[in-house]
Amino acid sequence: MSTLARDLTREVDRIFARLMVRAAGDGNDRAFASMIATRAAGGGALPAWLGLDLSDFHRLIAHHFPGVSPDVLSATDGGSPLMANRLDEREELIRLLLDHRAHQSLSETWMARTVAAGCMASDHLWHDLGLWNRAELTDLMRRNFPELAARNSRDMKWKRFLYKQLCESEGVYLCRVPSCAVCVDYQVCFGPEE
Predict the structure, then answer these.
(1) Helices in 25-121 by DSSP H: which ranges?
(2) Which of 4, 130, 132, 191 could form a disulfide with 38 if both were Cys (CB 3.0 to 4.6 A apart)?
């Protein structure tokens, strides 16, 4: 591991620990702490404030990490800007996620908006969100959007899965063969991302 990578990892760990000491006990604390810490250290691909508006980001911090300053992130902390030409696409993803939320936590709406913002980037969703592994993403999907997560019974990569759900809801089926198991892109869509 390079010195730069070690320094980045140390910074992420420091910010993560600072957040988790103040964690409120909500099921999404750990996922949001990972995203915030990674973003604050310059990793991930989320836009400013995890893709939330500033007031929602402040509410998220107050709810999940009482006593932590929302200045842990700022608009200038790197990340990708939301692309204006993809705002409709992002709103469709938010709607899809919110239509399948668990209705167990105030933070499901923030999570839907953040996950949709992560979908706008170009790497694996867990990486774009600033999570540390795919298992964290699977856990947050099951916790926040259980009905939707249950549909991903074949372990399709999450970003592909979400877009496939959007297409199917519009009656668009992109797979040209009757079974994904015989599709030449099977390994691209399913299985491990590590």
Answers:
(1) 29-40, 54-64, 87-99, 108-119
(2) 130
Report the C-alpha gap between 92 and 115 in whole angstroms. Answer: 12
d(CA 140, CA 72): 22
Give the C-alpha distances (Å, rounded to integers) separating 188 from 97, 160, 165, 179, 180.
Answer: 23, 10, 17, 15, 11
Residues 77-96, mean pLDDT to the nearest whole number: 79
Would you give the DSSP letter of residue 90?
Answer: H
- Look up the pTM and report it: 0.86
Buried b (16+ CB within 10 A) or exposed e, 24-48: eebbbbbbbbbbbbbbbbebbbbbb
Pair of tokens at residue 40: 């604050």
Round the average pLDDT of the chain to a whole number and report it: 87
**How big is the chain, counted in residues?**
194
At 27, is the secondary structure helix, strand, or coil? coil
**Helix and strand totals (H; E) in the chain:** 10, 0
| Domain segments of the chain as ranges | 3-189
Query: Torsion over CA of 21, 27, 33 and 35, rounded to 10 degrees?
Result: 180
